[in-house]
Amino acid sequence: MIPFVLPSIIFAMETSSVEEFREYILPNIKQVLTLDDPPQISLVLMQHADLLLKLCTTEVIKTDIVPMLLRALESEWEQLQELCLSALPNIITMIEGPVIKNAILPRMKKICLYGKRSNSKSLGVRVNCLLCLAKMLPHFDRWLVLDQVLPFLQEIPHSGEPAILMAIIGIYRMLLSHSKLGTSKEILATKILPFLLPLCIEQNFSLPQYEILSNLVIEMINRVTSEHKEALKQLDAMRRETQQLDQQLSQTSTIYKNINSINNVYYL
């Protein structure tokens, strides 16, 4: 029965003010937000996720909308997953860190690691999952990116599909250039470049796609070498300062020894 009356409820939501929705409609549909069966209910709600996000309070989004999105991520309906992936970036700032780490990322990882299926629809969901991840990335904690995101990016199965690879390359580009997520030369040299360099002989890229990859690899190598040269310069300067200090201490010690020797001769 609910799937038949839900369009009318949605229409009422569209024509009501925020205050009217929260006072008259929300109390009556909160239970509907928890339903998974029949799946048409979730589909209609997810198709109007933007409307729900606009009308609901932050607290309701945390307690009711986010769980609905998490269920959609686990759904076998790829259309539901697609709708959820398009909605998640809009509320990522309202979601607490533990929920991102322990609930959202594991579900997104499961989608991305779905397997080497040639089905174009499955490929589309995996690509959109990576694009969703890229949109949310600037709001993540740096350590969450290093501990959770980077490792699973390199586990994603692919058969050289440019769509998957370009989405991953786009995330690496963001990690390189974003001030908050700035990746260290150690991570670039030991984690990211070893993944990207073999792609430089991948046959499935178009020329523009390959240029994006090659430019990124060159920029990363330049970043690693320039930062390491600077680090070596600083180490060299510290070594020279240490040597100079040692020499000064040695000279001072010699002077004191000479003074002591003179004093000893004088008193004799």
Automatic annotation (TrEMBL):
PANTHER family: SCY1-LIKE PROTEIN 2, SCY1-RELATED S/T PROTEIN KINASE-LIKE. Keywords: Coiled coil. This is SCY1-like protein 2. The keyword Lipid biosynthesis does not apply. The keyword Coiled coil applies. InterPro entries: ARM-like, ARM-type_fold, CIK-Related_Protein. It comes from Apis cerana. Residues 221-248 form a coiled coil. Transmembrane segments: none annotated.
